[in-house]
Amino acid sequence: MPNDNAPDQQLEHARTLIKMGRPEKDEWAVSRDEHAMPSRRPVIVPFTLWQQCPREEGLAPWLSSDTELDDTLTAMLSAAPLVAIDFPAFTDGRGYTLARLLRERYGYGGEVRAIGDVLIDQLFYMTRCGFDALALREDQQLEDALHALGAFSVSYQPAVDVGEAIFERRLREKGHA
Amino acid sequence: MYRYDTYDQTLVDERVTQFRDQMDRHLAGRLGEDEFRPLRLQNGLYIQKHAPMLRIAVPYGMLGSHQLRRLAAITRRYDRGYGHFSTRQNLQLNWPALEDVPAILAELAEVQMHAIQTSGNCIRNTTSDQFAGIAADEVEDPRPWCELIRQWSTLHPEFAFLPRKFKIAVSGAAKDRAAIQVHDIGLRLWRDRDGEVRVKVLAGGGLGRTPMIGDVVREDLPWQHLLTYLEACVRVYNQFGRRDNKFKARIKILVKALGIEEFQRRVEAEWAHLKDGPQTLTPAAVMAARGHFLEPERRPVGDTAIADFERLRAENRAFARFVTNNVTDHRVPGYKAVTLSLKRREHAPGDVTADQMEAVADLADRFSFGEIRVTHEQNLVLSDVPVDDLETLWRELDALGMGNPTVGTLNDIICCPGGDFCSLANAVSIPIAQSLQERFEDLDFLYDLGPLDLNISGCMNACGHHHVGHIGILGVDKKGEEYYQVSLGGNSTDDASLGKILGPSFFREDVPDVIDKVLGVYVAQRHEDERFLDTYRRIGLKPFKERVYAK
After folding, report:
1. CATH number of the domain where residue B494 is located
2. pTM of the model
3. Domain edge (last residue) among B67, B94, B110
4. Which of B14, B151, B284 sits opposite A152 (nearest CB)?
5. What is the strand order of the sheet B335-340 is part of?
6. Which chain B residue's Cα is nearest to A175?
7. Which residues constitute the domain of residue B142?
């Protein structure tokens, strides 16, 4: 039998959280335990655990990278104070698709947070895909991270941040010239 | 060819700055090797056997003479004065110093070049037909579409960490010269009854360890939807492609596992949401892309000049050989495309020295509007040569050692860098190519054999595309010894097929004899004018096998 309460010392606390491009003090801890509910609040728990008490205050879900989003699942998520998406490894690119789908297809307007193997050289892409909260892996330097967020001032493709493809932008600007 | 505007330039400049910063952090110990690796790969930088290797993108094989001069200068300054053209139309430097790479990238950016996404698990350089825009059998110039795909795929925020690498090839002609059936996605542009461009979309082709011919996902996609449809395909792959085993991570494995119908269903379901979205192409957007590939202002070539050319061809046997093998018909009368052979015994296939790069740049300026194309057969093409300049060009190429009249013959070997350079290779490949070129150098014999693709890969990653060579040679490692496996019957064009393994592998020194025996069977059994491939398809593997393994 799993414990009712996961030991709180196993919780993860992000040392550095960047919210909407700025460092912010992070109140939320992350629990990886699939079965036991930690006593600490606020806490981000696996989706399966969260869905048992989706209305509880101070409780938010995290989605594993192999989650398949659909209408039922995303309807539930609309009640969550934030939705975290896990990067089990920074080379697992499924989280980018999940964030875009949450934002663009299902219109989720709350916080979408990247957790797990979140490294500074992926932050720019994450932001473009709709992550507005970035819980950096413990060893990542805040200064480098803030710098990396502004790596590019132009993008070719539309995504969550830019609604227009570069070819449209060029035509529009030419039209105005 | 495509010229950058301020957006393109800003993007590559910022990319250089970003990579310089990543390299600095890596060298300062703030970015570990495991985390740096995907970043450097997505900037074309490998760590090879003897030195780093830098793969520079040549988008759909198009190069300007000023760019080729810059490449020559870079190879002199940062490398050993030569480069290697790969089967994916890119240029590889074999000896740059790690710390110099940001400076090399900065020099490339000055001439509108980069190394973005030439490696790594992302969308790679889009490849195309080396005769795009000039081929007589073309229905639609693929280059503007390739450029639209290049921009869509460059720094795509969602697709930088796919399960595995992802390669797209585009053909717009009746005859496929871009090997679209053996790419992750192959696109064929065609025109419907109303003259509108449609796109046939193939997915799941590829070589490597598990070679496969692509399946049709969509026959008749209207051109407006090209980018949204590609996005749907790659998104399905990103979500469902295997990530637990890198040997099973390519899209071909997903397509096979799901079955083409289920893959199609998922793509169409995804596309239903993306269709008519912000990446939908408009006539104005396509027109703007086409505006970068305008017809050059060709001087008229008169009938007398054409007649003179034909007469010279009839009189001069050496010139005639060159024209027959290395010169391709052009849509415009009086013009030809000329293939410069990068296959000489003294060098690895696809290698070109800095001096040669500069000489080719000069020839391109004098004879072909300053443009050069790189072919997936690892040669170069001058695409717009007036026939009355052909003889002069031929003599100059001959002097440069690039006039070998053997394009398309057995001697025109496609070959990866192999064990001499690559850390993945099981065996060397360049010395095999050289031993074959030495053995089969008699021109009359080569011409008698007719068109014959011979491809060599130093390992099963298949960079030399051995599966689609009429004759394929694969280096294998058995208990630390190098052996070579021979396969027959591969083909990358319209009637694409994968080669079948002849039998047990051979010692390196026996390879020329084995190939000689294979050719002997063909010569003895062929019907009049029958290509090697057709004879093989008619008689099968058995007669070859019996001859080669006869006691």
Report:
1. 3.30.413.10
2. 0.95
3. B110
4. B14
5. B62-64, B371-374, B380-386, B335-340, B327-329
6. B284
7. 134-290
The answer to whether position B117 is within a domain reads no
B409 belongs to a structural domain? no
Of B17, B152, B278, the CB nearest to A163: B278
Based on the domain organization, do B79 and B198 belong to the same domain? no
Reading the block at residue B212, the tokens are: 């496969």
Read off the pLDDT of residues B290-328 as tens digits, 9 standing for 90 and up: 999 999 999 999 999 999 999 999 999 999 999 999 999
Q: Among B266, B290, B314, identify where a domain stops.
A: B290
Asked if B38 and B161 touch (Cβ cutoff 8 Å), the reply is yes
pLDDT at B177: 94
Lowest model confidence (mean pLDDT) among A122-136, B299-313, B337-351, B516-530: B337-351
Q: Provide the edge-to-edge strand list for the sheet that holds B215-222.
A: B127-128, B168-171, B185-191, B197-203, B215-222
Same domain, B172 and B270: yes
What is the C-alpha separation between B380 and B61, in angstroms, rounded?
Answer: 9
Judged by CB atoms closer than 8 Å, whether chains meet at B161 and A68 is answered as no
Q: Could you give the ipTM of this predicted complex?
A: 0.95
Pair (B140, B237) in one structural domain:
yes
In the block, tokens 């979205």 appear at: B277
CATH number of the domain at B390, please.
3.90.480.20
B394-409 tens-digit pLDDT = 999 999 999 999 999 9
- On whether both B273 and B334 belong to a single domain, the answer is no
Comparing CB atoms, the residue among B121, B151, B238 nearest residue A166 is B151
Beta carbons within 10 angstroms of residue B165's beta carbon: 19
Give me the total of CB pairs closer than 8 Å, taking one residue from chain A and one from chain B.
114
- Which residues of chain B lie closer than 8 angstroms to A70, CB-CB? none
Question: Is the model's pLDDT at A177 over the cut of 80?
Answer: no
- Pick from B436, B480, B473: which is nearest to B455 by CA? B473
Report chain B residues whose CB lies below 8 A from the CB of A90: 35, 38, 161
